[in-house]
Each structure stands twice: as C-alpha cells, then as structure tokens.
Amino acid sequence: MAAITVEGLTAWINGYAALITEHQAELTELDSPIGDADHGLNMNRGMTAVLAAIGATPPTTAEALFKGVAMTMISTVGGASGPLYGTFFLRLGMTAGAESELDLVSFGTALRAGLDGVISRGKAQPGDKTMIDALGPAIEAWQREAASGASPGEAASAAFAAAEAGRDATTPMIARKGRASYVGERSAGHTDPGAASSALLFQALRDVLGAGA
Ligand code: ADP
Ligand code: MG
Questions:
Q1: CA atoms within 13 A on the CB side of 166
Q2: Ligand 1 centroid distance, CA of 130 (Å)
Q3: Is the pLDDT score of 213 beyond 60?
Q4: How far is it, in rounded angstroms, from Cα 12 to Cα 69?
Q5: Over the stretch 129-153, which tens digit does the pLDDT of each residue have?
Q6: Which is nearest to 201 in space by CA: 160, 162, 146, 145?
C-alpha cells in the first residue's frame, strides 16, 4: 500500500512555508476589505518560524513534526488563524501518532481530526466563509480518493482541486465568523483569506506527492 514518509510530510510543510511567503502580499490583500490586512503577515511570520524549527531538528515522526508545527504557529502567528491552524496541526499530529510513515487512509483520518479540531475550536459551519470551506472539501476529496485506492498524487490532486473550488466558493458568501463577520453583507464579493491559505496547504501537498514522494 502506498505510504507517505515523514520526509514527504516534512517536504509538504517546507513547501507550504515557501508558498505562504510567495503569496504573502496576496493573502494580506484579501484580508484588507473584510479584515485587518494581516493574514499574509501572520502566516508568513508563523511559517518562517516553522521552517527554522524543522531545519534545526528534523522530526522523525509525524506526531513530532505536526506538534512542532502547531506549537510554533500558536506562539508566533497571532490573529484568529494562529490558534486555528495550531489546533489543526496538533490534532493532525496526535491522530497520526509516532509513525515514520502513514498510509493514505490513515493520513486522511488524521486530516479529518485536524478539521474537527478547527470546527470545535472556532465553531464555524460550512458556508460561514472561513478556512473550513476550503479544508472541508479538500479533506473529503482526499478521504474519498484514499478509500478507492488512488495513488498519493491522484489523492493530492483531487484534494487541491476541491480546496480551490472551496476557496472560490467563499467569494459570494456573507461571513458569519471571525473579523469578516463585522462587515456583514459587505463581505460578499471578497474571497476569504483563510480559505486561500488553506488552499495553498493542499497545493503544497499536490506539489510534493504529485512528484512521487
Ligand atoms: P484575524 O482575523 O484575527 O486578523 P487572520 O487575518 O490571520 O486573523 O485570519 C483570518 C482568517 O481566519 C479568516 O479569513 C478565516 O478563514 C479564519 N477564521 C476566523 N475565525 C474563524 C473561525 N471561527 N473558524 C474558522 N476560521 C476562522
Ligand atoms: Mg486579519
């Protein structure tokens, strides 16, 4: 059965950090009309710190990798997205366990636990115009592909496509959670920044697993 190694998972996180830096200005721009124009800055601060931590001590298990990502994000990101992404990675790591590789179904179960953590912490429902509108469909797609015996590259491509569609679907939504909910109906017509950063997470996964890690 196909497996994802801790080296592959580490490459995923490194790739995500690179994409966040690349898209920092765009994420901040999305956060301007419906937020406080700091999402790109917040995420870049967090992921740059994650890169440094991983580089200093390369993790040998999925649990160590993701718990480290979580702790670094919680302590450095600031804003609502810090504890939410922190919870995502913490639950992901706890569910993945002290393994040096994961099969696709187990990774899907761990991703789902991460999403459930975000939902129980932030209390957002699908359609509230948040990161869960990208994470949810992406993880659903991953689990569906994994259950049907897809390759890592196929599962990651399907998850990224679903994340992009989920991100784009936030544009007409009226925000009901977070800072964007303060502008009410005027939030419609703007893509949610957290959904955009979540789509990048699955772009990074597609980039790594599409290449056969
Ligand atoms: P802040 O809103 O504190 O400035 P950021 O700008 O870094 O924090 O992050 C904003 C993003 O966080 C939003 O675009 C949204 O996707 C996400 N978010 C905010 N509140 C919630 C929530 N309760 N549940 C899920 N995601 C949320
Ligand atoms: Mg903000």
A1: 31
A2: 7
A3: no
A4: 12
A5: 999 999 999 999 999 999 999 999 9
A6: 160
Q: What's the CA gap between 192 and 169, in Å, rounded?
A: 9
> Is 178 exposed, middle or buried, given 0-12, 13-18 or 19+ CB atoms closer than 10 A?
buried
Establish whether residue 81 lines the binding site of ligand 1, counting it when its CB lies within 6 angstroms of any ligand atom.
Answer: yes
Atom nearest to 36 CA in ligand 1: 4
What pLDDT sits at residue 131?
Answer: 98
Which CATH number belongs to the domain containing residue 18 in this structure? Answer: 1.25.40.340
Chain center to CA of 9: 13
CB 142 within 8 A of CB 108: yes
> Domain range for residue 155?
3-209
Q: Between 39-56 and 193-209, two packed helices, what is the crossing angle to 10 degrees?
A: 30
Residue 210 has pLDDT above 70, yes or no: yes
Q: What percent of the chain has pLDDT over 70?
A: 98
Number of domains in the chain: 1
User: How many Cα neighbours within 13 Å face the side chain of 34?
Assistant: 26
Cα end-to-end distance, the chain, whole Å: 14
Residue having the nearest C-alpha atom to atom 1 of ligand 1? 79
Confidence band for 2, pLDDT divided at 50, 70 and 90: confident
130 Cβ closer than 6 Å to some ligand 1 atom: yes
pLDDT of residue 212: 47
